[in-house]
Amino acid sequence: MENEKQSFLEFAYQLYKTMKTNEISLVYEGEVTQDITKTFTSLTEKSLSKSAESNTVQKKVFNVMVECLQNISKHADSLHDEDEERRGIVMVSKGDDSYNIITGNMIKNTKVPELKSSLELINSLDKEGLSNLFKQQIKESSLSDKGGAGLGLIDIAKKTGSKLSYQFKEINELVSFFILTSTIKRN
What is the pLDDT of residue 21? Predict the structure, then answer.
């Protein structure tokens, strides 16, 4: 029991050191609900307001954070049971010249090709192309029952002005872990 406690304390300290080294200011893992989104965005807002960031950067970080959390709450799949809660991980880190919002959640392997294709299309477009794609998606009413045809991802790319960085890590034959990194320049 004492060994277990010692190893957990060591883990907690290593996690703290890693977060400090990578300037990770917020981390959350768990079910993503409307209440969690409100709480997390409120914490982010408070953290940013204490910094010397411009209002424009603060607003972008806040808006992208909301969009990322909504993506998890709408589109995350579960590892086992359909009715299981939609869980994910969210991290905010501050680098020398940018903020990174990193999200991760389970996704069914059957959805990976379409999502990857959407991300590739979004990353291939400039600002005007993104605006046109956004308008086209709305006009064609290609909204799914979960509320989007990649509109959230298009919006994140528009707001950040950066390419979306992503990875899919296969967990088993049914699901993968989808990691999305959104970068917001600080200047």
Answer: 82
